[in-house]
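Justification of computing resources. Each target in the renewal requires a structure prediction run like the one illustrated here; the chain below, 181 residues long, is used simply to show the kind of job we budget for.
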Amino acid sequence: MTNILKKILDSIEFYVLAGVLFIVIWYFVLSPRKIDGISMFPYLHNNDYILMYKLEYLASTPKRGDVVVFKHSMTQDYIKRIIALPGETLMIRDGKVYINGQLLDESKYLANTVTTFPSDAVREGIPYVVPDGKYVLMGDNRERSTDSRAFGAVEKDAIEGRAVLLWFPPQNMKLIQRVTY
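Resulting structure tokens:
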């Protein structure tokens, strides 16, 4: 009887430790998020589920093209793409994005018919210098995205992590690739 009890306790211990490890990884390393809205369409869809790597920027800095989740308010997270980095000069002219005077090649994730409209913070033809420690973030669905064009650059501390995997629905599962320019 003691041998059976020992096996049962060993099994329970294994499953409890496995469960705790799973929860720690799931919520503190790879955090699940639901896409709520169409601001990243067509790359990500409303009601898609992603995994966000929360430790990405502890030892590195965010890079242009990264798809990131950030805290927009106390109750709302947004998911957007990094467009401009600290110290860079961004300008929207004739529906296109320029960084330090050079046209930003967004052809890897935007159709060439997409027009980037200015808004309150980033205005047509007026250079916008990204403050130190901040990033300009935009949704891929430029016509339907509330982003840095409206509310300005986002603090690095507000960026919660990088989206790394679209995991649901299963037929759309994919790694969320880092775009290189």
